[in-house]
Structures are given as C-alpha cells and as structure tokens.
Amino acid sequence: MKMDRKPYTGVGLVGNENVAAIYTVNNGIIDINGTGIYHLFYKNYKHDLLQSAVSMIRVNDRLYFGNRKWNEYTHPHHLVPERTEVLDGFRYTDNFILEEDNLEKTDIIYAYGNNRVVFETTVSNKASEAKKIGCFGYIAVRNEEPILGEVLTDDALCIQTGEAYIGMATCESNENYIVEDSPTDFSYQTFLDVKNRNQKIKGINTNCRVGCVKGKEYELKAGESITFQWALVFADTKEELINDLQSLDFKYVAIEAKEYWKRWLAKGNKRVQEVASIHKNDNDEEFLDFVTRNRIAMKAVCQNGFIPADLTGHYYSNKMPCYYARDSIMVARGFLLAGHYEECEEIIQYLIKRKRKSNGEFYQRYDGLGEPNEGANNNVSHQIDSIGYFGRIVYEFYKRTGKILASEELLQELVSVIENSEHKNGMVGPEGGVNEGVFGAAFITSSNMFIYGGIKAMEELFVVFENKEYEKRCQKLCEQIYQGIQTTFNKELERYDYGYVNYHDRVVCKYDTPQYFGPIYGYPNDENMKKTHEYFLKHASFFKDGIGYSEQEYHHGPWLFNTLACAEYCKVHGEASEYRKKMLWAKNHANAYGLMPEAVDANDESISFINPLTWACAEFVASYYR
C-alpha cells in the first residue's frame, strides 16, 4: 500500500530495567524544552525527573538542540529531520541538515541495562573552511522536589532530587554548567550561559528548575566529522552512582547495549518458537522489524509491573502517568505471546497487589503511587470487564508455564463480583467497558463477551484446583451471559448491537468494534459474531482498512488497537489476506519511529491522537505472535 502522507511525528519510548522515558526530536511536544527526553522516571512513576535531555551543539552564537535552532534575539526555529529510523529496534536516530552553518548532525539515543541512557551526536562539517563546534549534553531537571547539584571528582555532574541520583558523563569535556534556570517550565538562562561561555560549576541547592550542560569545543576541518557521546546514569545513592560512573566506558556502550537487547529478545524468541512448533504458527516477516521496535518499547516503560497508559501526558493525573487495569493486562498479554513471561507476571502481580473496591472488583485506574485514581473523562463507577481480561491472562499464563498467578481465593472473589453485579436481560453490569461508557454506564455486549471468556478460563482453573462448586458456578454464569449477549443481536443489520444502558430498556443500536476482543479472549466465534465481523468490515472502516470504535465522536476515526484486534481475529479464524491488510494498515499508520498511536483523525489522515499509546504497541505485538 503506497502512502502519500508523511509518517506521524516520531515519538519514542526509551528505557531499560529501571528507567522509562519518552523521547522526540520530531517536533512532537511543543515548548522550548519539548525536544529530546520530555518525561523520565526512575524505578517507579512517582517523580518525573527530567523535562529535557538532548544533545546540544554550539556554532558561533547559535545553539542547536534536537530539532531546535536557537538564537538569543528571536524565537527558536523548528527543524525537520531529513531521515528518521530505529536501528536494531532500540537506537532512535534522526538526521538533520543545518543549512545556515553548512553542517549535518545525526542524533542517536538508546537505553540498556539497569540504569543507562546513552546519547550520540555525529556532526559533519560540510563547509570548505574549518569551524569551531561546541558539543554538549543538556538536561533540564524538573523542580517537583528540591535539587542538589555538584561536579564529582571524575568531572561527572551529579544531581540529586527526590529519591534519585542522576549522573551526567561525557566522552570528553572542559565546560560545565549547572544553572538555576526558572521556577517555571520555560528555560532561558542555561542557553544564555552556554552561548556566552559563562561556566557555572559551583554546587547548587535550589527549588528552582535546573539546567545542566557538559561538553567540549572542537575544531572541525573542512569535510571532517566528530561523534560526541554522553550518558545519564541513575542510582539510589551517591556512592552507587560514583561506582557505576567509574564502570562507564564509552568505547563499549554501543556494544553492551546491542548485546543487552539481543539477549532479551532471544529469550522471548526461544519461547515463541517452542509454542509455534506446537501450534504451527507462521509469522509474516514483513512486520518483524516494527514488531521488534514495539516489543522493546513495551519493555522500556514497564517499571516493576507498572504499565503507564501513555507517557505523552494525556492519560496523566497529578503529573503522574496512570495505570489502567485493562490496558496493563492487554500489555501483559503482548508480553506473554512474545515469550516474555517475566514481564507478564510482573504486571499481573502488580495488579493483584493493588487495592480493590469494597465489592472486590479492580478500580478502573491507579496513579503513579499505585493508589486508586478514578474519574477524569470516563468515571462510570464500574469497569468489571477487567475481570474478564484478568481471568483469561491468568489461564493463558498457566497453559504456557504451569504456574497459576492468582490464588484460588482471589478467583472466587472475582467470580462473586460478577454474580453479585446487576443483571439485565442476562447480561452483567452496568459498567463503562473498554469504550469507557460513551453512552453512560451500561450492560455492554463487548464487556460481557470479555467477561464470558474470563469466567470460562476461571472455570478451567477451578478444575485444576478441584473446586467443583466454583466450576459449576462459572458454567452457570457463562450460560446466562451467553444468552444475554444473544438478545443484543440485531437481525435486521446482522450484527451485535452495543448493549443496554441502565436508564431505559431499549438496546443501544450502535456498533462496537471492541467485540473483536471477545473471541480473542474466549467467547465463541458463533454465527452471529461471524456476521458482526462482516458488518464491521463493510460499515466500521475508515481509510479502507482502519477499524473505528463505537460510532462515537471521541477520537472520531480508526483506532489502532481495534484495527489490530480485527487483524488478530482474522488470523485466528483463517482469514490470512484480511489479517495482512489490517497489519499493513497499522504499520503504515505507525509513527516515524514505528510505534503505534491510539487513533487517527477521520477528517484528516495526517493527524493521529495519543502518539504512541502503550496498549496499541502491545496489540501490534500480540496480533503478530498470536
């Protein structure tokens, strides 16, 4: 499929075991600092440490950082990358032509190990005369907590804020700046000091936002190039930070990073091959590169089991990312199907440890502290469909590993939540569902499909537990829910309708494409579901192969995870051609780094919403490995 439009803005997810960050030099976040890293968290999502981290070069009185060209006496100018790519699935790379100074620069960022983020900038002098070029690392430390800064004996910069210590090291340096910049989110003093070579290297103790710059000036001959490397290292104590900085050798960081991600991918690949040998699952190689990028992006943001819905700031509360029970299980499933069992288990165990409502159900979402955080634009009191996802993921994990992640008691409690919920025409609810209550709290067909699949899975687990009572209770619930779902089938349109709201008795006559997740999660692919699938292909499509949502105006247009659920449905049920078309559509609507946004504007295909969205990235992976 030939695409005439440009890819969506490249926004990447960069991280490792203990660091998670969002990164863009593609003009993705708009303010003077909105280039490079814009949010960064260490070990948890309590404290957003950095507002910016990006390579900087100085040429005469101009500064270039990310996609910005800065002059003292005017506003920054935004540059457009000549080339954007992701190398080896984890090296985010952007190339810029700096026409005014006859230079070319290539910015690269990657993370690996427990706590390292590495930046590389290659500057090439295209002019016919020599030029003096200053090459630096630049970070802006957020002022949510008091900030202490100092220069260590080995010339690295050390910043302590909240519970984190940040070390900033460069391959070479003879200029250091630690600047109290501004109490707001806008910088200015740091740039002036670097431009004027007004070095400030004294220790600092402030509640102000701090800018740190470290690097060296070089003379580049005509046609000459230089690669400047620098890194951020994170630790819990100053002593730990110093030890780690001493082991940092820039000659080996690129090799170490490649080996780290190669090992991690190989562990999953081995398990995938073991499952594929049983199920004869053949994957299409044309999607593998994008799958690898999204696999690594999922890993980048998984912090001790906490999966943020996104890192763009859209799904934030109190300046912290939010953890949705639903989204996190969807990501856990992506890890499971890709063979990364440790990450899957970590996510499920994190959810199990969270506080639940008095009736035993999960809260819809939790904040960066892991505390319940309902509300925002989708507070619908209940979201019991997450119980369906939960039951299914626990069962699928057991099938692959022989380990049951949830206790028998917890599964019993969750079954009781469904039994004790309100019922309407056999369906359970009312709740918001995966579409978050666009018609109000309702007894939703898609939710009931998920719940059916989860209860069916728990029934199998109760067989393992030799719990006859709950095995039969699960059977009874599934029979009731299945009959309730059938009452929503629209014989005239030959599709399942949305469901029933709690404020009148008429069925809501709207389509709802999350129903694709029903058969994926264990609901029977009955004749009515097959007809619904045919209806969606004809009437729920945007831009040919993109699949819409619920006839709603929120993010009006095709959604990535709905389209990918359709792809997975097609793959499971033998529609190879349709599977490929949906996957190709998703690939062609990825951002410039190959990650998946949430949705595409129905009125302008060049606009995407929430770029990237963690669940959409995970569903691309899940659809490929299913």
Automatic annotation (TrEMBL):
Any GO BP annotation: carbohydrate metabolic process
Q: What InterPro entries is this protein classified in? A: 6-hairpin_glycosidase_sf (IPR008928), 6hp_glycosidase-like_sf (IPR012341)
User: What is a GO molecular function of this protein?
Assistant: hydrolase activity, hydrolyzing O-glycosyl compounds
This protein's name: Glucoamylase (Glucan-1,4-alpha-glucosidase), GH15 family
Question: Which organism does this sequence originate in?
Answer: Anaerocolumna aminovalerica
Q: What is the taxonomic lineage of the source species?
A: Bacteria, Bacillati, Bacillota, Clostridia, Lachnospirales
